[in-house]
Amino acid sequence: MGAFGPNKPPLPGIEAYEGKGVFYLVKRREEFRGRRIVIAGGGDSAVDWAISLAEVAEVVYMVHRRPKFRAAPESVARMEVLAKSGKIEMVVPYQLAGIEGHAGGIPAVSVATLEGERRRLEADVLLPFFGLAMNLGPIADWGLNLDQNRIVVDPATAATNVPGIFAIGDISHYPGKLKLILSGFAEAAMAAHAIHPIVHPGEVLHFEYSTTKGVPAA
C-alpha cells in the first residue's frame, strides 16, 4: 500500500499552471509537437523524454544542476549527440528558479545557477521530472508504526503493528530493506502467504511453481 505523487519543484504558484503548461508526465507525444519544452531533471525519465520529444518539439531545453546525469549511460550518450546537433539545448548547471504564466499557460521559465546567474527560457511547456514523493495521506492516521514516513513491517510477513494490515514495496521499511522491484515481488509473495489463513481460515495453501507447471493456457 502507499500513495505516490510527483516530486514537485519548489516554485511558488506552480500549481496554478498544472495541466496548462506544467506536466508531470507525457500521455501523448504528439501533443508536444512544435512546442518549446523545458525538461528539468537528471534521471532516466528526464533524459528519455528529452531524446523522444526532440524529434517533435521546436526546441528542448534540458535543465540540470550538474553536468553528470543519473540516467543510463547509453541514453546520456544519445542525448549528448542530439545536443551537439542542436536538437537539444543543455542548460547546465542550472536549477528551476521561477515560472511566468497567465490563464492560458506559461510563456517562460526562469533558471539560475548556485552563484545566482539567471536565464529566461521562452517556453510553452515545463516538464519537471524529479521522481516520485511518498505521501501516506489518511494512512498516516491508522496508528501504524512509522519510520520517516515509511511503514515499519515484519520482514518475514510484511505485517504491520496493526492486525490485518500489511505493507509492501517502497512504502514499507525493515532492517536491511532494499528498494528494488525484485524485493517488492518477494514481499508481495510473503505477504500473500501470511494473509491467506486470515482470508481463508482452515484451508491448506498449496504452492504452484511455474517452473514445473508451466504457464496456463489462455
Say which CATH homologous superfamily of the largest domain is assigned: FAD/NAD(P)-binding domain
* Shape annotation: elongated
The largest sheet, given as strand count, sense and whether it forms a barrel, is: 4 strands, parallel
What is the residue-mean pLDDT, rounded to a whole number?
Answer: 89
CATH architecture of the largest domain: 3-Layer(bba) Sandwich
Helix content: 10-25%
Radius of gyration computed on alpha carbons? 23 Å
How many helical stretches? Answer: 4
Reported by name, the CATH topology of the largest domain is FAD/NAD(P)-binding domain
User: What fraction of residues sit in β-strands?
Assistant: 15-25%
How many discrete structural domains? 2
**CATH structural class of the largest domain:** Alpha Beta
Order of strands across the biggest sheet?
4-3-2-8
Number of strands: 12
- The termini sit apart by 30 Å
Low-confidence stretches: none
Order of helices and strands: EEHEHEEEEEEEEEHH
What does this structure look like?
With about 220 residues, the protein is of the alpha/beta class. The chain has 2 domains: about 130 residues, FAD/NAD(P)-binding domain; about 70 residues, no CATH class. The chain is about 20% helix and about 25% strand. The protein has 4 helices and 12 strands. The strands form 4 sheets. The chain has a 4-stranded parallel beta sheet. Strands 5-6-7 form a 3-stranded antiparallel beta sheet, with no helix packed on it. Helix 2 links the parallel strand 3 and strand 4. It is elongated, with a radius of gyration of 23 Å. The mean pLDDT is about 90.
